[in-house]
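Appendix C reproduces, verbatim, an entry submitted by the partner laboratory led by Prof. M.T., so that reviewers can inspect both the input and the predicted structure.
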Amino acid sequence: MLSKNAVPARVAIEGPLTVRTCHNYTCDLVSRIGAAKAFVLDISGCSDVDVAGVQLVESARRFAERSGVRLELAAGAEGRWVEVLERGGFVTAARPLDRAFWLHERGEP
């Protein structure tokens, strides 16, 4: 479930983020992003993820962008996240901006 951390504009997702659980997070993410100017999403506590979880985070990212809110991941995706991102084509042919968001890669100066 979503849990508040000490910083108000930071949310951690813990447990699985899959097609069976994404609905548990959608409304909460939208309302918290809508109330923030900057938002940090911590996905490191996800015990499992599938393409629905990636799509939820990507949708939250786009919603934040349209709302004028800066959304970033607390840390770059690792492990199962990277597997799903690669399999889904989210990072293999991605723009540098997308790779920076998901993997915290920095482009060449």
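The two ends are 39 Å apart (CA to CA). Additional entries are available on request from the coordinating office.
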